[in-house]
Amino acid sequence: MKHILSIIGCLFFIFPVWSQKTSNEKIKDSIKKYALISERSYKKYQYKETIEAANKGIMYSRKINDLYSLSVLCGDLGLAYQGISEFAKSKRNYLKALEYAKLEKNDALQSVVYNNLGNLYSDSYKKIDSALSYYEESLKLAIKLKDTFEILTPILNIGWTYIDEKKYDTAYPYLIDSEKMIYTKHGDEEGKVQVNYLLGRYTMAKEKYELADTYFKKAINFSEDAEVLDVLTEIYKHYADLAEKQGKSEVAYNRLLIHLKYKDSLYNETKIRENQAAIARFSVDDFREDLKRSEVEKRDQEIIINKTKQISYVLMIAGFILVLLLINMFKNHKFRNKALAKLRLKNTELREAKEEAEQQANLKSQFFSTVSHELRTPLYGVVGLTSLLTEDFPNLKENENFKSLKFSSNYLLSLINNVLQVNKIESEGVKLQRLPFNLKSLVNELVNSFSFAMNQNKNKVHQEIDPKIPEIVMGDSVRLSQILMNLIGNAIKFTEGGNIWIQLKSVKQENKQHTIQFSIKDDGIGISKDKQEVVFDKFVQLRPIEKNYQGTGLGLSIVKRLLLLFDSDIKLQSEENKGSEFVFAITFEESKELFVKDVPLSTNAIDTMNKKILIVDDNKINRVVTKRILETKKYQLMLLKMVLQL
């Protein structure tokens, strides 16, 4: 509270000081404001706004006899009137600016005004002698000031004028002096463009074509950081002339095209200037009337401002309101600090909860992986033993209980393999390989592998492979096989007495990159709209109640995750009782190899009678199963019963 009282005391001390601010200070603020508006508006070719702001600034400057501001603002008026081709008014305002600069005894202002008068006579009146006279006056004052920047401007303008008049020898000393100055701290990018451009014209006139080419290139390089569209247009015009003189007709033609491009841009910019000039011409007279009304309004406002007692009362009321606001701000500050403390605590709790959740997720993944591995070991024995039993006791093949046992063991092994596959993908343990393979053969082999299931469900499979697809492509055929096997298997499983269409279509080709669209379509039971969003989730089984479609609910989840490795996604279109269509696209590179070599393994490659195989396994049942399987192939076997522990 002690600090608040101190602040309040300071405020009541400051208020009277503010109320005593002189009228001169307010006028100076207004002058600065309108001078800034005038300068910015002129740079944007907004001549109307420039004239309005400059006149308002002049009105305030006259009240306090600010000669410096009067000179600057009259100079701005001269520039604006020159922009709208009101040359007489431009000259009149330049001369006023010069008069005020002399009264102020400011050589820098005089140098600027003389340079502007030189530009007026050179560009507008086309009176070269008068223009050179004004440039010389500007140069004398700049030399007197020893200001490199102020010296550079008239020297460059004099040299430019002589170049335009084709007085190259007269222009040369001025150009050399300008070149020395532009590479000092006072030189800017625009000056560098102009000097190199003029030196290029000079050396071209002197038939020093190689040197001229160097100067023109420098001018173009510097123009990248300078907004000199008009100069750049002229550079390419003369640069084309240089190429013509050098006998480079094609180069000259290309440079002339660039010149015409910049000329079009300059024409658009010139149109903008002309439009702004037209607006300014029609608005100047209206502005004078507005200015008179403005002056009357300003006088009325000044009378109101002079009523200091009323202002004091207003300030006192404002001070009282400010005190109330400060008290309210103090309370809000305390409340905000409490809220921030609670928020920080909540953030800490959320961060800890997030870390715990991530840890639990990792533990869950490790648990699934470990348990699945441990389950698969005894399952190997169960599946192997059931296969061996059918060989030892052929009658068991017709036993319903034995069939159920064999089906359940195979189903459980498939489930565990799928769980391991999902965990491996999620832990980023699956990496795509890049090997050549025959895509058409791969599809044919996959379809043939489902021949038993298709016959059992009485389905027909239709293949359509685009002939544009290359014979051999580079990619991971194993992961692609997993994707297609899951999709084709689902289509066959959920379709009875129907059709399955497998279509491969080339949708994009760039160089040797081929984007191939895969479509697996069936006319089976389909998927309802409300369940299509969750069909790719893990352990989701969308089966009708009246029929038991066996499955783990992981197939489509594995498909979606494998496609992410290919930078692809899968789309589903389905309608209940009308079938489903799964579509995805993968980009493969066409292989340089003409064919993939398939080397069949000869059954006579190994002499089974003279070869011994050592079976090592820490599970006795698995050792027995493996032994029985290999014995059917007539191998000689050795069992290692000792379990090694690391």
Automatic annotation (TrEMBL):
Xref: Gene3D superfamilies: 1.10.287.130, Histidine kinase-like ATPase, C-terminal domain (3.30.565.10), Tetratricopeptide repeat domain (1.25.40.10)
Domain (Histidine kinase): residue spans on this chain: 370-590
Catalysed reactions, semicolon-separated: ATP + protein L-histidine = ADP + protein N-phospho-L-histidine
Coiled coil: 336-363
Matches recorded under PROSITE patterns: HIS_KIN, RESPONSE_REGULATORY, TPR
Molecular function (Gene Ontology), one example: phosphorelay sensor kinase activity
Residue stretches spanning the membrane: 311-330
Pfam family, one: HisKA
Source superkingdom: Bacteria
Region forming the signal peptide: none
Residue ranges annotated for the Response regulatory domain, each copy included: 612-646
Catalytic activity, EC: 2.7.13.3
Top-level EC class as recorded in UniProt: transferase
SMART domains: HATPase_c, HisKA, TPR
Keyword line: Coiled coil, Kinase, Membrane, Phosphoprotein, TPR repeat, Transferase, Transmembrane, Transmembrane helix
PANTHER family in alphabetical order: HISTIDINE KINASE CONTAINING CHEY-HOMOLOGOUS RECEIVER DOMAIN AND PAS DOMAIN-RELATED, TWO-COMPONENT HISTIDINE PROTEIN KINASE
UniProt-recorded name of the protein: histidine kinase
Source organism of the structure: Kordia antarctica
Gene from which the chain derives: barA_2
